[in-house]
Amino acid sequence: MVGFAADAECWKGTAQGNFTVKSAYVIRCGPTVPDDARMANQPKDWDLLFGSICWNLWLERNAVVFDNPLEDRGWFQANADAGCRLADGSAKCGGVIRNHDGRWVQGVAKFIGICSVLEAELWGAFTIIHVAWGLGITRIVIELDCLEAVRMIKLASLPPGSPTILFHLRELLSRPWCVEVFHIDREKNRLAHELAKLASGPSLCPIYFFYPPVPNYYSDYAITIG
Q: Is the pLDDT of residue 5 over 60?
């Protein structure tokens, strides 16, 4: 009796079933691909260009999540900041994670909605710590410029009436990893402040930055983690 494997999706353009830009051109143009088609510079090739860009973004994201390039590289550092508009009380937060030599790992910006300044600062801490956990980081230093937020995070027990986000933040910190939270001067937290400005409502979904979105990052903001 002959057995068959379960059905699976694959790309028909290659024998291995893997997508390649070249095979997409072969399907579109035939076995002989013209030289001027290599960079998808024809308007009719927009679908090929779009598909190849999405595929490469998917491969890069999978490499971050599954290949675990952060493993065994020492401590990481994260900075977070937040702010509220006096006009309507709406708040934003932002943060950045950098590796042991100060290089960019990932940034984030998030529109929070209407809340107090302290709640916004706690949201900033929660958001960047949640990103770090998702990246598989096991040792990280968190720096905030809000002394009251740092104090509340470090409380042995939470008093009645504490912001709800603080309970979620404490649960995140209790997971099996090493997280240290420190207070720093506002001047040393400029990058997180700039990232918070990039958030926009009304969507509450975070915006992730896999590359520095701010100009002159390595000259103005890069640091070395001791």
A: no
